[in-house]
Amino acid sequence: MIYSLHGRLAVRELNFAVIECGGVGYGCRTSYNTIAQLGETGSDVMLYTHLYIREDMAELFGFATQQELSCFRLLISVSGVGPKAAISILSDVTPEQFAFLVASGDSKAFTRTKGIGAKTAQRIVLELKDKISSESISGAFTGAAIPSSASAGAASSASVSEALEALMVLGYSQGEASSVLGKLDPNLSTQELIKETLRLMTAGK
Length: 205
Prior knowledge:
By secondary structure, the chain is an alpha+beta fold. 48% of the residues lie in helices and 19% in strands.
């Protein structure tokens, strides 16, 4: 398993990058969002990777963040969604937007990506929302480290629940996400809560 690549950016194209590590160039299919975050050719870069293997091929996909990699893996787990379709979707939306669309059930937004029809878009939302049980969401704040002054408002806030579900779509555990959400203003919008939680989690690493 190739977890990540760290080396010199040898090639930078629209959906493709080559990372040279120890004299070996690794070609990675990737999204526009990741390409936009890479520096100029020759710069030092790092990509999180997924090796996709079929009977007739093996292809490496690379992503600038673990969140985008998590979204890619969720997408290719959906029946009828292959890696090319997943890359197309992640070229049109950020990981935060992707998580929000799944959590809010907005399948129509996915049809804006070329090649994604209404049935596939609906399947993406249905299958990925299914990966997070309603029980885990409703009980997400049970025992979590939430300040007493904010717990009542946070537990009853629809935006907090949606943000929590979206963060779990991105691969964070319910305890990890809820402990940070509990420190935020529950009156913020879902997208603001997601963005601020990710910022705090990244800053705390």
